[in-house]
Amino acid sequence: MSLNPEHLKEERSQLWRAELRSKIKNKERMFIPRVKMPELAPALRVKHQDKEVNMGLLLDQALTEASRCMDCVNPTCIEGCPVNINIPKFIKYIEQGDILQAAATLKETNALPAVCGRVCPQEKQCEARCFYVDKTDKPAVAIGHLERFAADYERNSGKTNIPFTAKSNGIKVATVGSGPAALSFAGDMVKAGYDVTVFEALHEIGGVLKYGIPEFRLPNSVVDFELDILKRMGVKFETNYIVGRTATFDDLREEGYQGFFIASGAGLPRFMEIPGENYNGILSSNEYLTRVNLMGAASDAMDTPIFKGKYVAVIGGGNTAMDSVRTALRLGAHRAMIIYRRSEAEMPARIEEVKHAKEEGVEFMTLCNPLEYFADEKGHVNGMRLNRMGLGEPDASGRRRPMPIDGSEFELDVDLVVVAVGVSPNPLVPSCLPDLKVTTWGTIVVDEDKMQSSISEMFAGGDIVRGGATVILAMGDGRKAAENMDLYLQNKLSSLTQK
Amino acid sequence: MNEILSKTYFSDKVVQLVVENRLIAKSRKPGNFVMIRIGEDGERFPLTISDADPVKGTITLVVQIMGVSSSKLVALEPGDSITDLVGPLGKPTHIARVGTLLAAGGGVGVAPLLPIVEAYKKAGNRVITVIAARNKDLIILEDEISKWSDELIIMTDDGSYGRQGLVTAGMEEIILREKIDECIVIGPAIMMKFASILTRKYAIPTQASLNSIMVDGTGMCGACRVSVGGKTKFTCVDGPEFDAHQVDFDEMLMRLGGYVQEERKAAEIYSQKL
Ligand SMILES: Cc1cc2nc3c(=O)[nH]c(=O)nc-3n(C[C@H](O)[C@H](O)[C@H](O)COP(=O)(O)OP(=O)(O)OC[C@H]3O[C@@H](n4cnc5c(N)ncnc54)[C@H](O)[C@@H]3O)c2cc1C
Ligand SMILES: Cc1cc2nc3c(=O)[nH]c(=O)nc-3n(C[C@H](O)[C@H](O)[C@H](O)COP(=O)(O)OP(=O)(O)OC[C@H]3O[C@@H](n4cnc5c(N)ncnc54)[C@H](O)[C@@H]3O)c2cc1C
Ligand code: SF4
Ligand code: SF4
Ligand code: FES
Fold this sequence. Notes:
By secondary structure, chain A is α/β, with parallel strands linked by helices. Chain A has 21 helices and 16 strands.
């Protein structure tokens, strides 16, 4: 809808937008410097697992930043957003001071704006396609910061707007999983009048948003607030429910479910399969982050235990590795180290996370690779052996291939190791659907335009299709699946009534 | 949902709970387990489904009081509900007609053994069961197990009931007496280790049901990993039953002790609160 150029043009030509544009000359707009996100000081924030590092823009900061946006005739930024937020429209509402309208605009296409404003890799998505980046040497409009601002403002205003939902059509559909893909699907389907149930295996809704991403980047209360809106729109949530196990797909079909959206994520942690990796004190990042984020293990009041390591090595260079190493610092590590086999330039983590980690005192040991772990007499890890790596020719992924350097081995004292070298798709759903087409990596095969799988009433999206991507790509999949499942079910229905 | 309908003490430390959960009662198979969490500050921990009644919509759990979580569960009374209960998890036991099965259960391991013994018996096997515990009070489910066993041998460490000796003594006696086609052992890791050494000596195929430490129980964390035949496996999704002769029990024992200090501290805090 939002991408339709006619519609965009029409909205842009509305009087209030035209007036706003004429208020400040574009030249002047271009001279306003990009806003800086206020942050908690590193020395303070490393003491708190649950204090957010980014503090959010103040009202006047947001108003000024919003006035940088040119309200372009051809807003390329929207193309960079996987859920096609009408970016100039929401930003202009902010510039006008109508923040609640800005928030409502976000929710037209994004079920989780406060989440995306915090965790989207904006620099690679919408902001990478901003006019400023494309056509000038100035930094992009801070779209993500503004998105967060509007969503937070609405949350704190007590005047939450519940998006309009069409009259119920009585058709039952289900999601498998409750991560961002499932939630955005659920939001769109409930708007279209469907009876939507979200099934989640764990005891909390939210997928990685809850068990993976830590409080200091994404407070659970923010996620819960957005979930509450979905609830008020009529989405039903079932926790402790493993589709395929607790009940089969056939059971659910019998209960009247006509469409399924599989968004079960890429939850299976990978290990390196090197000697000593099963010693105590060596955990997957999923285990480490789940204990802390989902189970609250950092607090003594909670039953779930955690190792509070003093010398912590985190293996990997993605968001998960950064979240783990920064968590370790906050739980009292003297040394918190990132061990990554390529160089910093190749790190997949968000630039912001790397920057924050460095400010907090994380040591970056790049071009290093673990070979083996050692343990004390009780089997708890107390050291590791590594070697240094050089970069060779680019490999299939285009990144230069790391090669071990002969004779470069060295040892390191560690008492906690977090392995964050990637995840594989969750095999639970494919294993109970023999007819479902999957790739050799275990991801579900879909028709990319529709997100439809080889079983026609089953659509899929997010990490179970992409094998590990981002919140916003997962949400984009959810929207696309909702649109196409709607078409599919309506077609099926009308062909039935014709007969 | 998850309401406790009845609670029976088998001993001071071992309690049987019948819990309402319509869906799991219908979908569970022998060998499956559930993950449980009690209260918002609780941890997730696994318990085997020892029995189920799909008509009444109930599952039966048998829990031994170990530390904080099992104590919290046992502190619940009929009418209370379990905060979170999810399952069925794990691969079901592969039940086949093999001839003669030797089933060995130690301590609370007898509870998960019960549905397996029943299923093997129903599949037309001869079933000989050895159950063992430290003393008479810890012997559980004797009547239920005996109903599905052609022969039942009871062993206690202190000789207070049945015969005196370890589970392996009872097992070896049977093995020497007649041809055993398959063996299954469930109990404390140390018991499974020695039972497995014994059956390897006699080359009897043996399954062991491992009780590794778990967090999610759905394959997401790797806390439950064990080495089987030199490969890392996740107990919750690849097991819990494995070829006992391939399991690295020493590593498993080491990993089970991984959080001993933290658990001891938690138990102290919990007992102060009581
Ligand atoms: C630590 C960490 C940090 C990250 N940081 C960022 C970031 O800053 N920015 C960003 O864009 N991305 C980030 N990502 C990636 C992003 O979180 C994922 O790409 C995204 O969450 C994928 O969403 P999803 O909906 O596909 O699945 P998930 O969020 O993985 O959710 C899947 C859910 O399905 C449930 N499930 C699985 N099987 C079943 C079943 N059979 N029945 C019921 N439920 C089931 C699972 O329990 C899980 O809760 C991060 C990931 C991690 C792990
Ligand atoms: C597949 C499986 C099935 C099981 N079935 C049963 C059963 O039917 N009846 C029964 O009484 N027990 C069963 N157990 C063991 C039971 O889960 C533990 O005894 C229980 O978690 C102990 O928790 P606690 O807090 O009371 O004791 P704690 O003081 O925390 O721990 C005591 C010991 O229990 C083990 N343990 C601790 N936490 C966990 C955890 N999260 N997951 C697994 N083990 C843990 C450790 O060996 C620990 O040293 C099973 C375990 C597994 C893996
Ligand atoms: S959702 Fe993400 S990509 Fe889309 S506009 Fe917001 S920050 Fe940019
Ligand atoms: S491209 Fe940049 S300047 Fe243009 S509308 Fe989008 S955010 Fe505003
Ligand atoms: S308990 Fe987490 S993977 Fe098995």
